């Protein structure tokens, strides 16, 4: 599977996308696409991998099951992260005018494809 092409298709289909990446829970970026020179998923991936790991651990400890999605909103952007299997996640960054619903839908569709390719 061409991860970069799949990420680009996702970013292109969601209004307001800034970028996206496939990231390992170790923080290493497998592939990425950016629509803005200011956005570097490499840095974002390393930082948000910790959030995904800690959220997953907390959910298990509280008996809530597997973490599927995490959303972080800031004053400049919204980051949506969807887990892919046990070792990866896809991160999609949206500007404040981004289409959040479409972003979540596209992440779910791509997560299934990525999980199959990474298995």
Structure keywords:
five-stranded antiparallel sheet, 119 residues
The topology string of helices and strands comes to: HEEHEEEH
Integer-rounded radius of gyration: 13 Å
Profile the largest sheet. 5 strands, antiparallel
Number of helices: 3
Description:
The protein is globular. It is built from three helices and five strands, in the order αββαβββα. The chain has a five-stranded antiparallel sheet with strand order 2-1-5-4-3, with helices on both faces. 33% of the residues are buried. By secondary structure, the protein is α+β, with helices and mostly antiparallel strands. Helix 1 runs antiparallel to helix 3 (100-118). It has helices at 3-13, 41-61, 100-118; strands spanning 17-24, 29-34, 69-73, 77-84, 88-95. Strand 3 (69-73) and strand 4 (77-84) form a beta hairpin. 43% of the residues lie in helices and 29% in strands.
What's the helix and strand layout?
Blueprint: H1 3-13, E1 17-24, E2 29-34, H2 41-61, E3 69-73, E4 77-84, E5 88-95, H3 100-118
Helix pairs in contact: 1-3
Tell me briefly what this model is.
The protein is an alpha+beta fold and 119 residues long. It has helices at 3-13, 41-61, 100-118; strands spanning 17-24, 29-34, 69-73, 77-84, 88-95.
């Amino acid at each position: 599977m061409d991860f970069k092409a799949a990420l680009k298709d996702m970013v292109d289909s969601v209004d307001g996308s800034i970028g996206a990446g496939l990231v390992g829970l170790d923080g290493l970026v497998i592939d990425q696409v950016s629509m803005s020179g200011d956005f570097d998923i490499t840095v974002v991936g390393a930082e948000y991998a910790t959030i995904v790991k800690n959220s997953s651990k907390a959910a298990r400890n509280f008996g809530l099951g597997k973490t599927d999605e995490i959303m972080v909103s800031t004053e400049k952007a919204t980051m949506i992260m969807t887990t892919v299997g046990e070792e990866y996640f896809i991160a999609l960054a949206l500007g404040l005018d981004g289409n959040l619903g479409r972003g979540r839908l596209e992440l779910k569709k791509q997560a299934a494809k990525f999980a199959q390719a990474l298995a």
